[in-house]
Amino acid sequence: MRPIDIHLSGLRDLGAEIELLDGYIRAKAPQGLVGATITLPIISVTATENLMMAACLAQGETRLINAAREPEIVDLANCLIAMGADIRDAGTDTITIQGTKRLQGATHRVIPDRIETGTYAMAAAITKGSIHLTDTSLDLIPTASAQLQRAGIMFIPTAQGFEVKTPEGAVQGVDVMTEPYPGFATDLQAQMMALMTICRGASLVTETIWENRFMHVPELCRMGANITVHGASALVRGVPSLRGAPVMATDLRASVCLVLAGLAAEGETVINRVYHLDRGYERVEDKLGRCGAHIERIAV
Predict the structure, then answer these.
(1) How many other CB atoms sit within 10 Å of the CB of residue 281?
(2) What separation, in Å, do the N-terminal and C-terminal C-alpha atoms of the chain show?
(3) Predicted confidence (pLDDT) per residue in 244-300, tens digit
């Protein structure tokens, strides 16, 4: 479930008139929007972004309390500022926006994808290989890189980005709990679990953000993983190796998690329903293939 009640409530606070009609949301603001102080009941990235954008052209000042702090929030704020918006303290839990009458065009370079960054770092780790990730930064994945370092993975900053190197021997199991930024990202949980399936010892993966984020567990177990789910936590006991199997992707992060597992597994893995992948990864098979992976997309 991904309810949008926080979005609608915040827009109403800004003066929007909203009604639900025939399964559609109809919103209007005949007199324009008016600044307000809005406290988000839970941290929401997209609600923070929606309300920040709406407040840019509202009359007066808006304060967003308990706002999300992800790098994407700061990046969006920087883009809006370049367009003429007045936004302060993006990246903290309270953002202040002073409404302006209009915005203008601007040129803005979007920040690197931190989830893609973390995924490819884990791809190197699960295959006991090394990789040089360019046009990105370790600063985008502070908690994930710290956990990977605890597991034994090495990171070496470079002028273009950073290198990921895996030591000889098995990766050490570490416990992971997903949290809002700067905590461990829920969008990296499945990939980390795939890595933990072949670790030394056991690890506990706890999901606190989204329900149904363990749908990849049965598929990993089909490949020989030893995982037991208890409510919002999954106990992963490392096994010597995974084995290839036909598996099914259920969502974006589960699909790339199975790709990582397939890279490390003995034999062939066929992943069905990979259309999920393209929502978050551009040409993933090309990028991994250039790194030596035996991976191809099969047309059906």
Answers:
(1) 21
(2) 31
(3) 999 999 888 889 999 999 999 999 999 999 888 988 899 999 999 999 999 999 987
**DSSP letter at 170?**
P
pLDDT in tens, 93-149: 999 999 999 999 999 999 999 999 999 999 999 999 999 999 999 999 999 999 999
Pair 254, 229: CB distance under 8 Å: no
Q: What DSSP string describes 121-166? A: HHHHHHTT-EEEEES--GGG-HHHHHHHHHTT-EEEE-SSEEEEE-
* Beta strands 154-157; 130-134: pairing state: unpaired
Q: Where are the beta strands (DSSP E) in 127-272?
A: 130-134, 154-157, 161-165, 176-177, 202-206, 226-230, 233-237, 246-248, 270-272
Nearest alpha carbon to residue 146 among 101, 194, 91, 184: 184
Q: 77 is written with which tokens?
A: 């704020």
Q: Among all chains, which residue has been given the structure tokens 């509202």?
A: 58
Strands ordered across the beta sheet of 37-39: 37-39, 61-65, 94-98, 86-88
3-state SS class at 71: helix
Q: In one letter, which amino acid is 205?
A: V
Burial class for 107, CB neighbours closer than 10 Å (0-12, 13-18, 19+): exposed
CB within 8 A of 31, min separation 6: which ones?
Answer: 15
For residue 207, what are its two tokens?
Answer: 């999901």
Sign of CA dihedral 43, 45, 49, 50: negative
What is the Cα–Cα distance from 13 to 110, expressed in whole angstroms?
30
Alpha helix positions (H), 23-68: 45-56
